From TrEMBL:
This is Response regulator transcription factor. Gene3D superfamilies: 3.40.50.2300. SUPFAM superfamilies: C-terminal effector domain of the bipartite response regulators (SSF46894), CheY-like (SSF52172). The modification 4-aspartylphosphate is found at residue 57. Residues 6-122 form the Response regulatory domain. It holds the Pfam family Response_reg. PANTHER family: TRANSCRIPTIONAL REGULATORY PROTEIN NARL-RELATED (PTHR43214:SF24), TWO-COMPONENT RESPONSE REGULATOR (PTHR43214). The keyword ATP-binding does not apply. It comes from the Bacteria. InterPro entries: CheY-like_superfamily, NreC/VraR/RcsB-like_REC, Sig_transdc_resp-reg_C-effctor, Sig_transdc_resp-reg_receiver, Tscrpt_reg_LuxR_C, WalR-like. Keywords: DNA-binding, Phosphoprotein, Transcription, Transcription regulation. The keyword Ligase does not apply.
Length: 217
């Protein structure tokens, strides 16, 4: 038999990781070889261990699954990636694809879809969970008829990093130390975020971060 697919699993909830690992390790062609509790740890493990596939939760501390996927796609272009999410939202599907993932899997039906999604990702085939195809095609056609383009990311990657940390309650000084930039630069990015997103304060930024899957409610 060929060697099993080596999987890196990242989720900040230990019980979720345990459940997903049971699903994957129960298949003869899949083996979880590394676990991470956040996106930054996932990136470090992927660079130090031999893995074929990274399964990343979309909302994790420090670095989200989407942020980790973007970095891994740049640094390890042969690594296949899947995003795990609680959110049945077409925006996350498109964001996952743009971040370099092969698709995203709903946690609520991971026991049904995750194994096939892993196999599809390793075959370099996009995975669309059952039931999503009609909604995605209908939304796409409606956008075309309305003269709209596909959804764009409203913020830059740096702004997204700062938005996540602001929503987690970090001060400008703390964010600057984490990202190796000045507190003044953080404040400038924060002001840009408020203007770009049309919000007034940290509370509304936090609500946006929750809707965008950067942090969990």
């Amino acid at each position: 038999m060929p060697a099993p697919i080596r999987v890196l699993l990242a989720d900040d909830h230990t019980l979720v990781r345990r459940g997903v690992r049971l699903i994957l390790d129960g298949e003869p062609d899949l083996e979880v070889v590394a676990e991470a509790a956040d996106g930054a740890e996932a990136v470090a493990l992927a660079r130090s261990r031999e893995v074929d596939l990274a399964v990343l939760d979309i909302a994790m501390p420090r670095t989200t699954g989407l942020q980790a996927a973007r970095e891994l796609s740049r640094r390890l272009p042969d690594l296949r990636i899947l995003i795990l999410t609680r959110y049945d939202n077409e925006q996350y599907f498109f964001e996952a694809l743009k971040a370099g993932a092969g698709g995203h899997v709903l946690k609520s039906v991971a026991d049904r879809d995750l194994v096939e999604a892993c196999r599809a990702a390793v075959r370099d085939e996009p995975f669309i969970y059952p039931g999503a195809e009609r909604a995605l095609v209908r939304s796409y056609l409606e956008r075309l008829q309305g003269g709209d383009r596909l959804p764009e990311r409203p913020v830059t990657e740096r702004e997204e990093e700062i938005l996540k940390l602001v929503a987690e309650g970090h001060t400008s000084k703390e964010i600057g130390e984490l990202l190796f930039i000045s507190a003044k630069t953080v404040e400038r990015h924060r002001a840009n975020l408020l203007q770009k997103l049309g919000v007034r304060d940290r509370l509304e930024l936090t609500r946006y971060a929750i809707r965008a899957g950067l942090i969990e409610p």
